[in-house]
Design a protein that fits this description.
By secondary structure, the chain is α+β, with helices and mostly antiparallel strands. It is built from 26 helices and 20 strands.
Amino acid sequence: MKKLLSAVICSAALAGTAQAQATFRADTVQAGKFDNGKMWTFDAPPKEFWKQTYGFEPTDQWLENVRLSALRFASWCSASFVSANGLVMTNHHCSRDVATKVQKAGENFNENGFYAAKLTDERRVADLYVDQLVKLEDITARVQQAMDKGKSDQEQIQLRESELAAIRKEYAEKDGWKGLELQTVTFYNGGRYSLYGFKRYKDVRLVMIPELQLGYYGGDYDNFTYPRYCLDFTFWRVYDDNGQPLKTNHYFKFNPTGAKEGEVAFVIGNPGRTSRQFTVADLEFMRDIQIPAQVMTLRNQSAALKKVYDRTKSDSILNMIFSMENTIKARSGALKALQDPYIIARRAAFEKQFKAAAMQKNKEAGSIWEAIANYRKEYRDVLPPVLASQAASTAFQAAQMVFMLAQPSAMDANTMKRMSEQVEKLGKPTEDELEADLFRADVMELVAILGESDMTVKQLLQGKTAAQFADEALKNTKVYDVAFRKSLIEKGMTAINDSQDPVVRMAALLMPRVLDANQKIPALNTALNAQRSKLARMLYDVYGTSIPPDATFSLRISDGVVKGYDYNGTKAPAVTNFYGLFELNTAFGQNSDWRLPKRWLEAKRTPEFLASPLNFVSTNDIIGGNSGSPMINRNGEAIGLIFDGNIESLEGDYIYRSDYNRTVSVHAGGIMAALKHVYKAKRLVTELETGK
């Protein structure tokens, strides 16, 4: 199965891997000082390290202002205040789905953008919110003391969850915490715990968003690349409970000079998830089983949606495709990193170093790595049927529901009720071609994940190819018929197992293995999480806060330097400018991903405008979730807005290497130049320049 999945997903990456393998000896590879990254928490900022490295020692007041100026943008991105009147800056790609909700008849934000020339023109988006971290408290001792009373892994986890719930309930009534959104945050997978209190602002209004073409300049070709020429920014405004622009003392004053090569810079944001403290056994499992299946599914769904978009030109479909393609590129890059034996060797070098240090404290510590490796072996047998059952088509979903509803003991009452209601409503999709593509993908994924030699696959295909089976199955199935589904459910499992309907038969062959896996996985998860928690506590015992915890979509501060890098036999500059943007348009033309809207083509291209800095790169450590994070200087001024990483940074889920990884940001000077020379956004320019 490993060979088949790898062949389906990344044969090209494997060719590159073989080449890399010959260039080093794994036993000579050493771990880097910051392989685990520089996503520092505000609970334990590395002041001494910053002082020694940059000659910069921030005060507690500086750190508090930075924390209170930063925001979490809904549940998916980062943002920040950039004026005393509640002006908020984040990315275009964080905003485009919600911004289009306030389009009026005849408007098209994707084509023309939006700018509120007056305060009264700013438009509120229902249900959009931003969160400001105003309180944080270490609750580690209390949680760990509760856990230590448990005798088994399961009991310890239950005690932890009970204690975390009790803490949230207690603090919800505590002075200074009342009315806040409370979140318990786990660091080091249980090595430390914190309670965070967020002030939630629910009146958020759109101020300015560029055209999609500028916010996503270069499209997927340029995504995760550099040099870049992209204006991935949006401005919003927070209003108070009285419907007035929020007055705040905490914001990043906009510095139109922006980032300069060689200067220290800080990213303040909410990185979503990293796996840098996973064991090598974890990473090998993700490389061989988990990520290939994810990438294959996403690619198939994206291909199907592209056909729909070609017919409908739907903005919502287009945004779905953009989001999906972004994930595909990110996960494919992560997979390629895990298929690089040098990266695995470097993670193994750290694991060896950590294990030796841990065993000096506790001779039995090595058993933790052994236990995790054994659990991962079990996952290799258990998880593939579950991955193969992830249905995208209505046909396969319906057949699985029929199977499950015929044996109600497999579900609790609420799940059964919901599924019964859903199976009554499912009809044949209106998009026949999309449904056919999705079902064909379901079959091909099942075959790829389980392997052609698997008995379920052989029984299903009976000598046909996956494509042949899929096409014939859709022609002959009755699974779209509600009466047919209800009849099978009433007759029970004997009728389902004897059914000659090809899609029902597909579910009947696979689902017993899925049910068996679902019975085993919870216990495996509990056992694995318990071992991981022990390992994480040990990591904290050995290294303390010198190694930051894995990302958890909690507020972090990352230090770096504005700096170019060597790539592809040449050098990438630290900063790009508008000359490059127009040059790409000239080279590729108006029918390309580098086309420019009319007002850009008509803009007066003065030397001052063209030479304005547009994008830049730095060595800061980021990951998904950081999108929309402000880039600030040591004065606490906004000098840029991060929106991406270079292609080399896609390994950042597992390892951080400052010689390769780069954060890509919109330069503050580029934002200002565009607002002045193209968008004529005088009111917004004045507010950014004055902070008022």
